[in-house]
Amino acid sequence: MIRIRSSRVAALVFILCGFGLCVPFVAFAAGRAPQATKPAAAPPGKPLFEGACAVCHGMDGSGGNGPNIRHAAARLGPNGIEDLVKVGFIGSGMPTFPQLGDEKIRQIVDYVVSFDQEASGTQPGDAQKGKEIYRSKNCSQCHIVNGQGGNLGPDLTRVGTRLSPGSLSDAITSPGLKLPLDANLAERAAFRAYLMQRAVTKDGREITGLRVNDDTFSVQLRDAGGQIHSLRKLDLQKLEDLPGKSWMPSYKDGLSETQLNDLVSYLAGLRGAR
Amino acid sequence: MKSLQYVAYAGVLAALLLAGWSSALAQNVTYDDILHSSAQPQNWITYGGNYSSHRFSELKQIDTQNAASLKMEWVYQLRRTGIFETSPIVVDGYLYMTEPPSTVTALDVRTGKAIWRWTPELPKNLLTIGLFPTNRGVAVLGDTVYVTTIDSYLVALDGKTGAVRWRVHVAENKEGYAITSAPLAINGKIITGTGGGEAGLRGLLDAYDAKTGKRLWRLWTVPTQGEPGVETWGGDSWKWGGATTWNTGSYDPELNLLYWGTGNPAPDWNGDARQGDNLYSCSLLAVDADTGKMKWYFQFSPHDTHDWDAAEPPILLDAAINGQPRKLVVMANRNGFYYVLDRTTGEFLSGVPFIKQTWAKGLDAKGRPILMPDIDPSPQGTLIYPSITGAINFSSPSYSPLTGLVYVTAREQGAYYFKGRPKMEPANPELAGGGGGQRVLTGDPAYTAVRALDATTGKMKWQFKLVGDSWTGTLATAGGLVFSADVAGNFFALDAATGKPLWNVHVGAAARANPVTFAVDGKQYVAVAATNSLFVFGLP
Amino acid sequence: MWNAGSYDPETNTLYWGTGNPAPDWNGDGRLGDNLFTCSLIAVDANTGKMKWYFQFSPHETHDWDSAQPPILFDAAVKGKPRKLVSLANRNGFYYVLDRTTGEFLTGIPFVKQTWAQGLDAKGRPITLPNIEPTVEGTLVYPAITGGINWNSPSYSPLTGLFYVPAREAGSYYIKGEEKMAPGNSVGMVGGGGGGAKFMTGDDVYTTVRGLEATTGRKTWEFKMTGDAWTGTLATAGGLVFSADAGSNLFALDALTGKPLWHLQVGTAVRANPITYAVDGEQYVVAVAGNSVFAFTLPQVAQAPQAPAQGH
Question: C-chain residues within 8 Å CB-CB of B503?
Fold first, then answer.
């Protein structure tokens, strides 16, 4: 029997392993992360969310039967979320909620939006210097900020709303350790994003890449060049997960503590302004 | 001609830094690729199939002999309801399409699985006056996907991830500007018009730098005070003249001219306060792609009072007229006439009705309609053919250079036209187009048909009649086929030479989109957006 | 009783499954077995009187409704012909009962479960300690959505197999308030008092399993990626139709589970496929998203049909 200490902690696990940046839970529990979420007075949307939404999206919005919606606000905005709650989502099991009415729906939306605002805190370093480190370490080779950069790693345009400074720091020093759920597309909500897989076709071709889609009959991998490989499972002799692997190198030794703090501060400040 | 090899910023970075990790990046569409689209028929590379808007594919794996055995390959379903009018772009196994109102989705052509999806946040008080919140497709250049949004932005997305590269404000949605059309990518530039011709605004056509999103030029389609043409607008009616550019145009790279149709003058059904021809509404504009200057215009329906936009995609083709080779632009117009113009000069060559029309005795030597009496909308209603939705609307015709025929989905329908207000109330959604409108003749006498017209004369070669309405364009292929659909939800293939039906499938409800074809791994597919799904067919 | 039941016309008996006791995840205010929740009940169709009941999950606190469609079939058990009713239960066990008396004959897990040591001779679960929802969350298999949910299994008398769409997942069950305020519902869960946090990611999967109908023994399985909500359809053609969470409708060999055909229909099939024939042609029909899809075999050497022609 596995028990976790509290649902709040459970929520944090999910916050911490946000978009492709990962943190070992132990490190956090040891008091490394400077910021925990502040329990405010229960917002009116909370009981509504737990009644109407949690059955599919989990009590903390981290998903399950339905997708992880902790960062829905970043992707859809409040209007987009409200729209979805009102019109549903064809074929996904997401119904409409005509009985709730506009007021309650808005309260739910506010609550869902609040999921996206949790990761913030005291920034440990100098963001301006951090920006320079981001540039000098060629982070944009693989990461996009405000539309600029490569696409092998996650888009960091809003990473500051997703990850606390502590988890950002862990993600930089121990990349690939723990993968978040893919919240980009409803149909792959249950999958871990940025999972690396290795496929070997029956004719001996080998493809290693990040999993984009995986269903019973096919898999799509994004290779190091960014190209998508669409593979039929019938044609494969092997498809294996490469857990813990990441194309991102660890910067554990490549950055001084000050530099790390500066970089973390820069990333923590990325909150989606265009 | 310039030959710029456009490579987006990220592409450069990846190529430099990841060289050796992988072979060349896929789905990098150069201007040259689009110029020679027929050389890569596996891709559907630009909205109209090529710059000439032929919607003709050199693919011929599916042909008249085997079309009957077409079967469903995969289906992509929308996640929410909406008006689904997309015409997909396909590049090297990726299919880029739009979902209503302004979502872009990249699909794996082999499986139909989504690779990424991008949805903009739209304002709550979105204005969509006289149009549906939909989108008809994207443009691709380099490794970037360009889309317009219903709130009048032009957005550049990373083709592999959907990440936003830049986003520019084309026009103010609060004033009624809304965009539903696919942009056009030419040499380093992205061209887009806007809709909103019923909102009380002035039409415009814009060019943006493909790399940066910087606006390079703007052409207003309604002249302002002091400009030539403003005298064709009574009083200050030019201020809300309309003449929007709400469909995708064509491009002649040799002449470096864009051909773009313009919509109705406003208010739609009352011309009293806008005496004159109302330039450049209901016209075809030839626009210098470098400067945005109008080279020539041809107005199909001067002082239009029937909402007969000239937004239909113009088809560019070269053919002999009276024994002389000519560069032509042809258009099956919403007003019921099929026009052939010289595309270098705009000279009118011929124009014949391709449906029943009751508003013009004919066209004069310059192509100007000779009007019948009493055709204006009236308080009690005036019966005129064609109806407001027109002999053809946004759905694209196709042209097969093999048959020399233009395939057009033609609507045979009249309507009682009712007069609205003489003055526009800008951005008033309750008075779209100034009020007024139509009551159509319905029932069995109204029908649509796929018609094959001789491209140079407009003479009908054959027709395939459909029950009810149709809002589907046509697709012609080198396999000797024409694909289209009817309002009942039948997607079908006709023999391009005879119009004989060869295959059909019922996809559940009406298609309101243009079919496309493409190939991957040597297999040809035909796709059409219908109801809430993109249906893709291939041979067993 | 929120799902359809079955009917035995010979004995004029209805077989209907019942749902959870309320509130779902807090049993403190409803001590006891909470009859007739999470039960199968046999009802006289003329009078509505209950003939017998069998409670699968007494004092249930995991929302394991027993609303799954019961399958009626006749087969020999230990050499003796019996009239049977079987049910793959949301609680993770596959049950075979005598449908005349309600007598428990067999029950074995058909998915991973961590809440019961097993079933006693009468079919009552021997529960493990510490399976109750807690404020902190208690991890238990199966998940709150169950080893199976409302989607229907199928049974082929030709193979003697019971085709169950099974879910392998666990949930953290979270305890809420013990009192219900009747009618005070805000949505799916109402005043259910608590809920669950799902196990997610790649550890969760669904699978179509061919179970020997009389014993529940697994003869084959077809593993799927993701969380499917599709029933199964078995045919005399030796096929089992179902769909995966990745929106693939497929046909399996009913004897071996080998996949024979699949088609991407664009969105998850959250429904039970059916089949019928008209004019001698067999159709398979499945609902996905906003669409109904119908499939037939290709018509060889038949003139193509023109779309309806007008005028």
Answer: 304
